[in-house]
Structures are given as structure tokens and as C-alpha cells.
What we know:
Shape: globular
Distance between the termini: 15 Å
Bound molecules: manganese (II) ion
CATH superfamily: Jelly Rolls
Oligomer: single chain
Number of helices: 4
Amino acid sequence: MRRREFVSKTAASVLAAAGLGCQSGRSRDRRRTERAGAGMQPVLHHVRPTERHWVGDGFHVSTLVSPHRLDPQLISPFLLLDHAAPRRFEPAARRRGVGEHPHRGFETVTFAYRGEVEHRDSNGGGGLIEPGDVQWMTAASGVVHEEFQSQDFTSRGGLFEMVQLWVNLPAARKMSSPRYQPLRDADFPRVPVGDVEARVIAGGFDRRERGPAQTHSDINVSDLSVGSGAEARFRFADGTTTLLLVLAGKVRAQRSVDASAGELLVLDRRQPGDIELAGVEPARLLVLNGTPLGEPVVAHGPFVMNTADEVRQAYADYRAGRMGHL
Ligand code: MN
């Protein structure tokens, strides 16, 4: 779901964006390791929702994570997280969304919570996802795609809520073939974690059922329903990245930080430990965990590669039509 801006970027700004840790704006997020309970992983960042902006005319999002705002090495393998908090759309005739645009070098994962999203890409992937469904689109060597609210939803109107996550690919997989995985709510195993129910989309928790998504690196993605007063304590592998996005309600994490709907916690992967969540109010959370790739991140517009030359090549390939057409 990115973005018009790439069209006007120059080679000079591609270079400016090159290298580890695109710096612009990072100072806005004060790095502050909050106190955590004994044996627990500290919270590195508590990210409040940014002012929302439109992606196309269908997705009114707050960008909580991007390689330009947070050190990409400390959030690897994740790149970007856009949250379109619930918003009401009036019935309309013409679908709202974002038209044809390219991606290369990573995956876009779209979680529909309310309303419906239609997708179509130049690799032949496409379809409709409904509330609870997830679309796992691997751009890899390159696709052109479009993302819209569905025609039915457009006609009907109503509340719309979704999340889009960008997952980086290891260098060795960046130029592999694109892939499209439509994942249905009914296919996600529900597993108890303490008092909490997890809906497992990819990977899982230790010794439990696995989610159906196929991934290119070690990734665990679940969403959790946390009742008021419910508690869960769990742990992912040492050294891995964990992001917690509160979709609704309010939770206390690590016995020290209260996070409300729309807020994101980045745990400090340099300090291993448990994760403990308690429901302050009934809450829903998205839990993202993955093994850092440990490779350079050069992110520019719709392309995320390892070097500035590879980004320039991506623009050239897109302009020459080598990522296909809808
Ligand atoms: Mn897109």
C-alpha cells in the first residue's frame, strides 16, 4: 500500500536513504528502556499513534513502525507497520483504495479486522479477504498490485479496520518468485497462552500448534484476545525481535507499561526475557516476533533491498515494465 511519493524520488534521495538506519525522524522516538519486572524483556520503545494519513483514498493509517523512524536492525525482520484504526465509511459507488503500484524485496501482510480488502497483482495473485482473514503477499523479485476496499463493502459502507505489515526478506530470497497466500480465519488454530487465547497466523508459541502461513524466515505472528484481568506469560527465542500492537482495549506489559488501542511496544531484543501481558481492559493485540536478518536495509518508497544500487535497479526494472502489469 505504498505510495505515490516514490514516483518523484530522485537518484540522489535514493542514495540519501542508503545505509544502515535511515536517520530521518528517528529522534522523535526517545529511546527509553522502561523498567520491567524480574526476568522480563525491557520495553525499548513505546510508540504512540502518529497523525493518520491516507494511503490512496481507502486506508487511513497511522505508521507505527518504519525503517525511517526506528533503527531497522532493532526491528528486523519487520520493516513497517500501518494501523488503520476503525473508521466508518459511507456507502459509495466507486471503490476506495490504492491503484497499481510496485513492490520488491519484501512481503506485504494485510490483516482485515472489519470490512473487506480486494487485491490483484501482476503475478496472478488476488482475491478478497474478509474480517479475520490475512493476505500474505510475497513481492520478492517484484510485483505490481492494487489494493481496494471490496465492491460489496463500498456499496454497503460501514466500519473498516485493518493492519498492514511489511516483512523483510533475507538477501538470498529477495529475488525469488512472488507468492500470494490467502489465509482464512477458520484456518488459524486457537491456542491458550495462560488465560489468553491466541489465534496463530504464522509460526507459533513453544510446543503448540503452528499457524498456516509459509514464511521465508523464522517468524511468529499471532493475535491475542486478552480479557480484563487475564494474564499470559510467554517467551520467544533469545535475540529475536518482538513488537506488540494493541488493536483495542488496554494491556499492562512487563508489569510496568500500560498500552492502549493504537499503541505499539518494541521489546529490547538485546536483553532476553519473558513477555508478560495482563488485561487492564478487554483487549486485542497483534504479536509479531522474528529472527533478525542481520543484513543492511536500504528502504526507499516501495522497494526494500540491501544496497542503493539494488534500489536503483528496482526503479529501472519497474519503469521498464519488468515487474509486470495488471
Ligand atoms: Mn502495496
